[in-house]
Amino acid sequence: MSAKLEIDYAFRSEAGVKESNDDLCKVCVPQGALLQSKGVAAAIADGVSSSEGGGHASQICVKSFLNDYFSTPESWAVKTSASKVLDSINRWLCGQGQSLYDSAMGLVTTFSGVIIKSTTAHIVHIGDSRVYRLHDGTLEQLTRDHRVWVSKEREYLSRAMGADPHIEIDYRAVALEQGDILLFTTDGVHDFLSQPELEGIISRRQRTLQACANALVERALENGSNDNASCQLIRIDNLPLETEADILQRVSDLPFPPDLQPGMVIDGYKILRELHASKRSEVFLALDDESGQKVVLKTPSVNYRDDAAYLENFLHEEWVGRRIQNAHILGVLEPRNRHFLYNVSEYVEGRSLAQWIQDRGPLDLHQTRSIAEQIIDGLRALHRREMYHQDLKPGNILIDNHGIVKLIDFGSTRVTGMEEITSELDHSTPQGTLDYAAPECLSGAASTPASDLYSLGVILYEMLTRQLPYGECDRLDQKRRLRYQSARHHNPEIPVWVDSALERAVHPLPSKRYTSLSEFQYDLNHPNPAFKDISELPLLERNPLLFWQSLSVLLLLFNLLMLFLLGFSAQ
Fold first, then answer.
1. Any long-range contacts for 477-483 (C-beta under 8 Å, 24+ apart)?
2. Cβ distance 65 to 57 under 8 Å?
3. pLDDT band for position 552 (50/70/90)?
4. Is pLDDT at 37 greater than 60 in this prediction?
5. Residues labelled catalytic
6. pLDDT surpassing 50 at residue 218
7. How far is the C-alpha of 399 from the C-alpha of 24, rounded, in Å?
8. 101 pLDDT higher than 80
9. In a shared domain, residues 337 and 278
10. pLDDT the model gives residue 89
11. C-alpha dist (Å) from residue 459 to 464, 467, 481
């Protein structure tokens, strides 16, 4: 079984009756790991005839898109990568068009791009070039023309690259099957061939892809095409589908390490002592013989040798860690000449935040803010790459002897870009720890920045009170009946506005939380006038328990008084 995306492609582009050819079409098939993580990229562009530099614009657009897309982080979703790249190219075209040609239409072109990743075609499009799919002999247009018709004889482009600094790109994702053919055309082809003609030429089995491309362009020119005529064809010869057996085979290429003991040397790392052991993994302090630096080796438990999902998460932790360079993210290192399955990371001398809270009790507001700022900085580094931790808790936060905070344990981290790769492994299991995970994650929904913000809010609440905002939850159904308990109930020294900020951060509904980490960070340091002074609220809202206790006492006293009065009147 081949787990590799395989395509065949061909193109043809002619100037036709025009002096120059302002069209460009191109395909880029990367090698190695990029083929799986980023996919195949293809594009076609048609320089607008009324633009002085239309041909230059189409060249820049296609070449820059194909180069820059593969330079974006592998963790980004295709839509994010393509949108950011096209936005950057569009701004450059607008600026240079105005500078070189002193015109808003100096460098303007249509553009249609397709990223084929795993089993999906991600289409980004602006203008009137087109992308079609031939599936089971039927041709379907996947893009829509951005044209405005003024009359039967007159039309103009409503959208194009380089025409406006603020661009609106159409995006569409289409599931592919083996044998599907993608057809890219400029208007010099599709305006002069009917859809049945296009379909008929491509469907003729005796023709190669190149013969089809040649026939499409030549027929368009024969039919009177008065523009550049270009087309590009991509046939899907094989789609990747990584099965559980494939993953097990891949990870089993590296055997599990032997039973490690102090003094043993493995691949140049001398084991000094065991730092932590659980049923899932063992963690050792080791000395790198080459650099002389202390490092941490994490080995998987042999109990999970046949658990493909566990092994994938173990590899996933290293993949994530090596792609983030931030002072508040634990540095994951690339092992040298690794002959066994383990991860290597930097050694942090210090304690977990959980141990800090246990040893020191409730922290003051200054300490809490300092730690919060560092956690937020680390989370931002993840979120910028569309990664969401999903298991943020005090035990997964380290504080070194100098007070530097580092986030650890990325085995559960959601990577948006990796979700676009088809796998038969089940990734639907809820992630996170019950007391700290956002309710939507425990219900199986995809995590978002708001999910990590919820976990952060719970952690800060615990740092200030040594309690949890909703108490300890033993079951998921308890998590669904959350009722916030004021942090001031446990620690009256907490300002009202800080308590209100925490309450908003840990709201059960994501839509009711802060929209960004920076907004939450600001409200932790500055009183938000939108928050009411809790002293102005009725006792029932400030402290429901105290309200009902007080009411019960009053009712008891009233009943005793009534009994006394009844007894007195009877005498």
1. 479/434, 479/439, 479/442, 480/439, 480/508, 482/439, 482/508
2. no
3. confident
4. yes
5. 391
6. yes
7. 54
8. yes
9. yes
10. 97
11. 9, 9, 20
Do 294 and 261 belong together in one domain? yes
The position carrying tokens 């800060």 is 460
Contact assessment for residue 399 and residue 369, using Cβ atoms and an 8 Å cutoff: no
Residues 164 and 256 in one domain: no
Is the domain of 109 the same as that of 212?
A: yes
- Name the band, by pLDDT with cuts 50, 70 and 90, for residue 521: very high
Question: Among 296, 236, 244, 245, which residue's Cα sits nearest to residue 271?
Answer: 296
> Given this model, what pLDDT does residue 334 score?
86
Domain count across the chain: 4
Residues 247-251: contacts with CB within 8 Å, 24+ apart?
247/308, 247/311, 247/312, 247/423, 247/425, 248/306, 248/308, 248/311, 251/308, 251/311, 251/312, 251/314, 251/315, 251/341
Tell me the per-residue pLDDT of 71-96, one tens digit each, with 9 for 90 and over. 999 999 999 999 999 999 999 999 99
CB contact burial 44-75 (16+ within 10 A = b; e otherwise)? bbbbbeebbbbbbbbbbbbbbbbebbbebbbb
Contacts 24+ apart (CB under 8 A), 427-432: 427/309, 429/309, 431/390, 431/391, 432/390, 432/391, 432/392
314, 299 in Cβ contact below 8 A? no
What are 400's strand-pairing partners?
350
Supply 282's token pair: 């063992």
Residue 272 has pLDDT above 90, yes or no: yes
| Contact in structure between 231 and 213 (CB atoms under 8 Å) | yes
* Last residue in a domain, options 296, 311, 346: 346
Give me 81's structure tokens.
């990568």
| Residues 6 or more apart whose Cβ sits within 8 Å of residue 42 | 9, 25, 26, 27, 28, 113, 114, 116, 182, 184, 232, 234
Q: Is residue 1 part of a domain?
A: no
Residue 111 sits at φ, ψ, to 5 deg, of: -160, 135
pLDDT in tens, 401-418: 999 999 999 988 999 988
Could you report the per-residue pLDDT of 173-201, keeping only the tens digit for each? 999 999 999 999 999 999 999 999 999 99
Q: Which domain holds residue 34?
A: 6-241
In our burial notation (b when 16+ CB lie closer than 10 A, e otherwise), range 297-312 reads bbbbbeebeebbebbb
Both 214 and 263 in a single domain?
no
Are 184 and 62 within one domain?
yes
Alpha helices per DSSP H over 322-465: 353-360, 365-383, 439-442, 449-465
Q: Do 489 and 457 lie in a common domain?
A: yes
Residue 491 domain-assigned (yes or no): yes
Of residues 320, 381, 318, 312, the one with CA closest to residue 345:
318
- Token reading at 272: 């000094």
Contact (CB, 8 A) for 72 and 417: no
Q: What is the CA radius of gyration of the chain?
A: 31
Residue 419, pLDDT score? 81
Q: Is the pTM of this model over 0.90?
A: no
Instruction: Say if 25 falls within a structural domain.
Output: yes
